[in-house]
Amino acid sequence: MASETIELRRKWWLGTEITKGGFGRIYEAEAEDGSQAVVKLVPKAPGASRELLFEPVSGLPNIIPIIDSGEWQDYYVLVMPRAEKSLRQHLNEAGGKLATDEAVRVLLDVAEALASLQQGVVHRDLKPENVLLYESRWCLADFGIARYAEATTAPDTQKYALTAPYAAPEQWRAERATPATDVYAFGVMAFELLQGHRPFPGPSPWDYREQHLNQAPPRLAGCSPSIASLVTECLYKAPQARPTPANILTRLRASQQAPSPAAAKLQAANQVIVDRQTQEGAMAAAQKSAEERRTELFAAAKQSLEGILERLIARVLEAAPSAAVTQPPNRSCDSATEFWLSIQ
Fold first, then answer.
1. Distance between CA atoms of 331 and 338, rounded to whole angstroms?
2. What span, in angstroms and rounded, lies between the C-alpha atoms of 123 and 140?
């Protein structure tokens, strides 16, 4: 596809393909005036409209802008300025872990972007691959991609609606995403930057589901109590219990100032409380999941039994056409576990 020309509001020449294998394909691109950019080609998918790719984020701080867009062949086209590198690349270059001061600077940029979003605007797929270094700031990219993938009816596209290592409990339960969903992914990413690994190891999707829903994250080591508490709170199972992006931003800024001895003691005490609440939250979530599983198993068993009884009744009626099937008197018709047969 290299050397192809795409005409949108401006004309773009496609160059080398940068990445593939994720959702969409990304190419180097050059405009008629020589300016450099990247073009993302998003395959048109059944059940999802072009509008889902666009969120009202234009002009907000630390968000990669869309400088041109349109349609070309079987793709929707997004044109963005060329970033220096992704946070994933930066992490790999650093050996998988950042020094606390550098990690906090990255998290400040991301928190500023999240705090600037309008009510109801949710990224849904926050992860190091979608955080890019652009003009010396760490910026969010790929707004709308997860929402688009979520809406489509094509299974090959739906798998991009979430990224298992960063997906919040409510995403695993197929509940509506909210800003708290991004806060949870922010917490996973913050843990990874500070500890050199993610809080939950997976490795299979089922493992990630179980861990995100029911397990408490490990305690953070090697960082201040204020930072450890903040990251742990972001990873609370209950969305309403997580801090808001604005609160995260305020606390990250405050963490850059040395606390007084009294404040340090309070932060340490708060960390103990947060750790206990995390354990209690995980236990409550596990209990809820167990109850949900029992309910699901009961419903499945009932459905299976009803199917068996239907086939049994059909066999009886086939063998004895004069038989009549009735419900016992004073019994609910909701149950298929009891019936009467009578021969006329």
1. 9
2. 9
DSSP 9: S
Angstrom CA distances, 67 to 215, 231, 260, 287, 321, stand at: 42, 34, 47, 48, 73
**Which residue has better confidence, 23 or 141?**
141
Could you please report the per-residue DSSP string of 273-287? HHHHHHHHHHHHHHH
Predicted pLDDT of residue 149: 62
Residue 334 CB-density burial (10 A; 0-12 exposed, 13-18 middle, 19+ buried): exposed
Interval 212-219 mean pLDDT: 95
Specify the CATH number for the domain of residue 143: 1.10.510.10
Residue 159 has pLDDT above 50, yes or no: no
Cβ(86)–Cβ(126) below 8 Å: no
The mean-pLDDT minimum among 108-112, 120-124, 274-278 falls in: 274-278
Among the listed ranges 115-129, 180-194, 208-222, 234-248, which one has the minimum average pLDDT value?
A: 115-129
Q: Is residue 292 part of a domain?
A: no
Which residues are bridge partners to 80 per DSSP?
38
Beta bridge partners of 72: 75
Task: Kindly provide the residue ranges of all beta strands, DSSP E only, lying in the chain, ordered along the sequence.
Answer: 5-7, 11-19, 25-31, 36-43, 68-72, 75-81, 85-86, 131-134, 137-140, 323-326, 340-343
Q: Tell me the longest C-alpha to C-alpha distance in the chain.
A: 91
Residue 172 lies in a domain: yes
Residue 333: pLDDT over 60:
no
Q: What range does the domain containing 168 cover? A: 5-257
Is the pLDDT at 296 greater than 80? The verdict is no
Tokens of 338: 């009891």
Domain count, the chain: 1
Report residue 141 as tokens: 């990219």
For the question of residue 74 being annotated catalytic, the response is: no
Q: Which long-range contacts (CB under 8 A, 24 or more apart) does 171-174 make?
A: 171/124, 172/209, 172/212, 172/213, 173/213
Query: Is residue 301, in this structure, part of any structural domain at all?
Result: no
What is the pTM (predicted TM-score) of this model?
0.74
Structural domain contains residue 264: no
Q: Which residues of 119-147 are buried (b: 16+ CB within 10 A; e: fewer)?
A: eebbbbbbbbbbbbbbeebbbbbbbbbbb
Catalytic-role residue among 125, 156, 182, 207: 125
